[in-house]
Amino acid sequence: MIIQIRKAVEQASFYRYFIFLFLIIYIDSFSRKTAYGQTLGIPDFKEMPGIKWAFKTSSPVFSSPAVSDSLVYFGGLDSLLYAIELNTGKEKWRFHTNGEIRSDPVISGNDLFLNGGDGSLYALNKMNGALLWKFKTRGERKYDFADYFNSTPFIKNNILYFGSGDGNFYAVKAENGNLIWKFKSGGIIHSSPVLGNDKVFFGSFDGYVYALNLKNGELVWKFKTAGHRYFPKGEVQGSPAIFKNLVFIGARDYNVYAIDQEKGYCHWNKSFTRGWGLNNTVHDSILYIGSADERVMISVEPETGQEFWKKNMEFLVFGNIAFSDTMLYVGTTIGKLHGISKKTGEKTWSFETSSYRDNKAKYFKPDDSYRDDIYSIIKTNAQFLDVECELGGIFSTPYVDNDVIIFSSTNGTLYCLKR
Q1: 110, 191, 343, 372: which one has the fewest Cβ atoms less than 10 Å from its Cβ?
Q2: pLDDT one-digit tens code per residue, 21-39
């Protein structure tokens, strides 16, 4: 009898251990995801990778690539969405919209969703580009020359959430494009939304950050930015990131805000003196902030804003960050992609586009600072964007996996780098 009891206890202990081990593996499989769905455990690119292939288009590209089933998808200002074979760099198919594509493709199962830049949301078959349905908003428009991106849809529970230049935020059914609800803000919405705690968060060019109820689109709260002498509205151009009970977002008033998800008040804000901090990426309990004219990258504690490190960048940062085991990867609008240590912020390597190498001497000194006569060469703010396109500036977020890094450039090229 004692032996039987002992065996039962040992068997129960084994099952408890097995369940415990299973839970560890199960939870870890969820924790090892980035904000963009890439699995962690990717080996670092400790040395600069070389070019595997480069696909050239006719117009600048601001859209970030999406990868699924050995195809790479991205859109450009030529109004074309491209599907490129990952192994060869050859085009498989293309889809034409009637507007500049400034948002990222979103993949769910066999479907691809795209904010087409023409006031329409498209659903396509990801393998052949066949149109499944199209949802029309009341139209798209740009705020100004520095309004670089459109809202990339967020999909959850078969519902697509996205903002529009018509000032509305939409929720539509992914299977047929039928409208579920919409919410009217006071300005253009080009912020890409994020979801948390049964709410959807986004910013508007009216100077507010919004939290809406996911089910019905009703306003939960809205947060007003401080504004700036050059941008008194405090236009919210950045896209949010979330961590625990906070939502992080940057605006044109030179501030990055950490806002309470439930109540809509600011826990802390980080101010820049020279420009915007629109790049905010949360990874492994760290918030990374990339700035524009401030030209710095910062690693901070998300709940307090306390800095771990702060490093100078040679130029502006607008795209978000990709990660591997101990490194991060980010581009600048001068035409460089950097591999950087997550722990220290030190650059390990820097890949230069050919456009940067061919054209940098027209505008920059060898240390990447502007030439002394730059304002006799570039006479308007809009011309600075033309220069960034000429240099092959990187506004996109890289895609990183075990073997390749893929990113787009404003010289119209999609690059695939291989270790």
Answers
A1: 372
A2: 333 333 333 333 333 444 4
